[in-house]
């Protein structure tokens, strides 16, 4: 018989899938045997909770169990409504912990319901109050986290976030490419993924280039935190989990290009992924095109990490009316021209 004891045993070891169709004007790299850059996607939505964040959720919880910060039957409190919440809720359910997620009232009901479906509790705070107000998002989560038995993972400062990528995601990519990876492309939210994977890869081969993809406006690409619509990436502050020495280059990507490329990945590669994946893949396609036809490009193996599934964005990125409201095109077919223009 072939089975695992728990869904948690299926976290990680996600596959690399070649992206070929959506890279205009680049051939070659066939199976890595013919000259030409080879672009490979690390497909993180195949984790059991649907995103790369399953990895940090299980690692942060295991570390807190080992240190005694999280006691049997304890409560996990985190201000998140996104992928980290799903990962934590899934791991907590399997390990018998209670979860309380604090989120602002602007978070969609669908997202809250996903967390509740795993048995988590969701506390909704009003957006329209100042941070010092007792009902503010910040104050409520601090108050809940200071209760006896409560533990707050804090993905923005927890060293086990980047460490999970240093010890698992990075080695997987190195092994899967037989050590032939030359470029790693990744978006940055907490910065945990790029910092952990990037550090591991550079320790194996210092010539590997680590390239961040960032929404225009975010601090990582020199912005001030100006709003952008791509979710899960970009920041208006520098998180502790981001290693500022790891990226050799950061490519700024507009919302329009991120969304158009996200749509192309579904239509041309059959990959239904979120906007941050489209953003990272857009940057990786740019790197691939830069390398095509150059001597360096002949042996280039570019890996781009795609963090989550497009299922959570059906009413946004995959909704034509939503895109049109912001003046964005759907990426079909006329928007393909935006790809060559960066
Ligand atoms: N994409 C999505 C959809 C995410 O939720 C996150 C995490 N915030 C990221 C990318 C970025 O990953 P990291 O926090 O490791 O930088």
Approximate shape: globular
Structural class: alpha/beta
H/E topology pattern: EEHEHEHEHEHEHEEHHHEHH
Count of helical regions: 11
Strand order of the largest sheet: 1-2-10-7-8-9
Helix content: 25-40%
- Distance between the amino and carboxyl termini: 51 Å
State the total count of DSSP E strands. Answer: 10
Q: List the ions, cofactors and other small molecules found in this model.
A: 4'-deoxy-4'-aminopyridoxal-5'-phosphate
Percent range for β-strand residues: 5-15%
Low-confidence runs of at least 5 consecutive residues: 333-342
Q: Mind describing the biggest β-sheet?
A: 6 strands, mixed
Taking all Cα atoms into account, the compactness measure Rg is: 20 Å
Structure characterization notes:
With 342 residues, this protein is α/β, with parallel strands linked by helices. It has helices spanning 53-67, 83-95, 109-117, 137-145, 160-176, 192-204, 255-269, 275-291, 295-298, 320-325, 336-339; strands at 16-18, 38-43, 75-78, 98-104, 121-125, 150-151, 183-187, 209-215, 249-253, 301-306. The strands form 2 sheets. The protein has a 6-stranded mixed sheet. The chain has a 4-stranded parallel sheet with strand order 5-4-3-6, sandwiched between helices. Helix 1 packs across helix 2 and helix 7 crosses helix 8 (275-291). The longest helix is centred in the middle third of the chain and has 17 residues, at 160-176. The protein starts with 15 loop residues before the first strand and ends with a helix. Mean pLDDT is 92; it is low at 333-342. The structure holds 4'-deoxy-4'-aminopyridoxal-5'-phosphate. 4'-deoxy-4'-aminopyridoxal-5'-phosphate binds at residues 82-83, 187-193, 231-233, 274, 276, 307-308.
């Amino acid at each position: 018989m072939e089975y695992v004891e728990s869904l948690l045993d299926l976290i990680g070891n996600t596959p690399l899938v070649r992206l070929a169709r959506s890279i205009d004007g680049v051939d070659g790299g066939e199976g890595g045997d013919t000259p030409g850059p080879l672009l490979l996607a690390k497909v993180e939505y195949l984790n059991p909770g649907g995103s790369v964040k399953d990895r940090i959720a299980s690692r942060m919880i295991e570390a807190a169990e080992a240190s005694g910060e999280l006691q049997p039957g304890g409560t996990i409190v985190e201000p998140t409504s996104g992928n980290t919440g799903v990962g934590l809720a899934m791991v907590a359910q399997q390990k018998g912990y209670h979860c309380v997620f604090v989120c602002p009232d602007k978070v969609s009901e669908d997202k809250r319901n996903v967390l509740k479906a795993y048995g988590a509790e969701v506390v909704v705070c009003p957006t329209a109050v100042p941070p010092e107000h007792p009902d503010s998002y910040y104050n409520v989560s601090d108050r809940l986290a200071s209760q006896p038995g409560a533990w707050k993972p804090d993905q923005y400062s927890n060293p086990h976030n980047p460490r999970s990528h240093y010890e698992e995601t990075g080695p997987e990519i190195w092994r899967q490419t037989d050590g032939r990876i030359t470029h790693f492309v990744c978006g940055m939210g907490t910065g945990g993924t790029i910092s952990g994977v990037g550090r591991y890869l550079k320790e194996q081969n210092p010539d590997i280039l680590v390239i961040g993809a960032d929404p225009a406006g975010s601090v990582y690409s020199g912005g001030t935190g100006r709003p952008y619509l791509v979710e899960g990436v970009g920041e208006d502050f520098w998180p502790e989990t981001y290693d500022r020495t790891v990226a050799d280059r950061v490519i700024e990507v507009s919302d329009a290009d991120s969304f158009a490329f996200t749509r192309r990945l579904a239509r041309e590669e059959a990959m239904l992924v979120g906007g941050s994946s489209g953003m990272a893949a857009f940057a990786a396609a740019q790197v691939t095109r830069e390398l095509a036809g150059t001597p360096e490009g002949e042996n280039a193996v570019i890996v781009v990490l795609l963090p989550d599934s497009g299922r959570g964005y059906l009413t946004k990125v995959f909704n034509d009316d939503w895109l049109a409201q912001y003046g964005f095109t759907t990426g079909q077919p006329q928007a393909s021209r935006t790809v060559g223009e960066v």
